[in-house]
Write a structure and sequence with these properties.
Layout (H helix, E strand, L loop, with lengths): L1 H8 L6 E8 L8 E10 L4 E4 L13 E3 H8 L5 H10 E4 L4 E4 L4 H13 L6 H6 L4 E8 L8 H4 L7 E4 L4 E14 L4 E6 L4 H6 L4 E2 L11 E6 L7 E5 L1 E12 L7 E11 L10 E6 L4 E18 L2 E15 L4 H14 L1
Parallel strand pairs: 11-17
Antiparallel strand pairs: 1-2, 1-7, 2-3, 3-10, 4-6, 5-6, 7-9, 8-9, 9-10, 12-13, 12-16, 14-15, 15-18, 16-17, 17-18
């Protein structure tokens, strides 16, 4: 089992990735990354993550197509606001897009406030629909070969590959689309698109187990980003402490608030902020393999203070995880469909 544990954290064999939402992917000098979330591959190009980042607001954008600018923004601005937006977002006639071009830090907040005032929807799902951003998997290696395969590397261009010498990594971008968001369950399902099948098949994945595990489950772990960065990976022990019929509100001022509800595991064990979307895995001794059983959803407000210093010194020691069993029927349909596509 030790070797398989190590494989879960190794860049060549781990099914753990990150999804980031990219603006101007095909313009490297203008490319911008935001909305970072953990995600993992369950095979045949299907990627699981959480849903709670999808309806958060980006507040503004780095670029926008001229047609969207003319129809969705300009008609709602007064003359002073029009002048501000045309100054802050310069038109590039080559791409027919407007790009953020202001060096005045005060302009940013003015633009954010105006977009909110005119109810321009900057939720990530809407920006995706407007073709302002696109979600991608971020896949990084120490060398410049995609899973050590030169042939696979040829499928990537300057738009989808670049070297990051400052962190000694080579970064590959793989586009995904949102297949379905299960907001109440806080789970989102994506699919890899515009990518050759041989690239998808080379990507490590982890099998799904839909069991509801009991609170004495052994060999239960959280697979997440390393404690100090997004680059490495960490596999740490986790403990199912109990179960909850969960209920809480998620604020969405544009589309209306909705609820998180349903069965959750109460988890005890280390998890870092930014671990949302990380898989909880267990070792299946019978099949001698790890399987994913749940997904990191929310921090649970049971806290620990250090040296009784309260301000800025709380650590979460519990988390809520969504068992994959709560979307089993729908997920199995997507998995069957994906198998037929590859």
């Amino acid at each position: 089992m030790l070797q398989q544990q190590l494989e879960l954290t190794h860049e060549q064999t781990s099914p753990l990735f990150r999804i980031m939402w990219i603006q101007n992917r095909n313009e490297p000098h203008r490319r911008h990354f935001e909305n970072n979330i953990c995600a993992f591959h369950i095979g045949n190009g299907l990627i699981l993550s959480v849903a709670h980042n999808l309806k958060t607001e980006a507040k503004t954008f780095k670029s926008i197509e001229q047609s969207v600018f003319e129809t969705a923004i300009l008609p709602y601005l007064n003359s002073v606001q029009v002048q501000l937006f045309e100054t802050c977002f310069a038109l590039d006639n080559t791409t027919n897009k407007r790009y953020w071009s202001s060096n005045n830090p005060n302009d940013y907040q003015l633009v954010v406030d105006i977009l909110k005032q005119i109810n321009f929807d900057t939720r990530w799902t809407t920006l995706m629909e407007k073709n302002i951003v696109k979600p991608h998997l971020i896949i990084q290696f120490k060398n410049n070969k995609f899973y050590n395969d030169t042939t696979l590397s040829t499928h990537f261009t300057s738009d989808t590959y670049f070297e990051e010498s400052g962190i000694n990594r080579h970064t590959f971008l793989v586009e995904v689309e949102l297949l379905e968001a299960f907001y109440s369950e806080d789970i989102a399902l994506y699919r890899i698109i515009n990518t050759p099948s041989e690239v998808i098949k080379a990507m490590p994945s982890i099998a799904v187990d839909f069991s509801i595990l009991n609170d004495n489950q052994e060999h239960y772990y959280c697979l997440q980003s390393s404690p100090t960065s997004e680059i490495g990976k960490l596999l740490n022990k986790a403990q199912i402490e109990g179960f909850t019929d969960h209920f809480s509100f998620f604020q969405d001022r544009i589309g209306g608030n909705y609820t998180f509800e349903g069965l959750r595991y109460l988890i005890k064990g280390y998890f870092r902020f930014g671990s949302s979307g990380a898989p909880y895995v267990f070792y299946d001794a019978k099949n001698k393999s790890f399987k994913v059983n749940a997904i990191q959803s929310e921090a649970c407000p049971i806290q620990l203070s250090i040296e009784n210093k309260r301000d800025g010194n709380f650590q979460y020691v519990n988390a809520l995880a969504s068992p994959l069993q709560i979307i089993q029927e729908k997920l199995e349909k997507h998995m069957a469909a994906a198998q037929n596509l590859l």
